[in-house]
Design brief:
By secondary structure, this protein is mainly α. Helix content is about 50%, strand content about 10%. The protein has one domain: Orthogonal Bundle (Multidrug-efflux Transporter Regulator, Chain: A, Domain 2), CATH 1.10.1660. A hairpin with a 6-residue loop joins strand 2 and strand 3.
């Protein structure tokens, strides 16, 4: 059987903010500039984010911090 989308762990905006320990402004900025993909719940304006995408953003953030420390 094909892998189901429900195998992914999903967060709403509030949950993603708590998981990443960031403000709403920071989270929306990452979504707006394309660093953090998001998905709409069908028929609503609610957004959901995958845990894997949140973790990828954390890795990217750490790399950017390291690069800034070297300059």
């Amino acid at each position: 059987m094909d892998e189901c989308l429900t195998d992914d762990i999903w967060f709403d905006i509030e949950g993603a903010m708590r998981y990443l320990k960031v403000s709403r402004t920071t989270l929306y900025a990452a979504m707006k500039d394309g660093r953090l993909p998001f998905y709409y719940v069908k028929g609503t304006r609610q957004r959901r984010l995958k845990k894997d995408d949140l973790e990828h953003l954390m890795v990217l953030g750490n790399r950017e911090d390291d690069e800034n420390d070297e300059t």
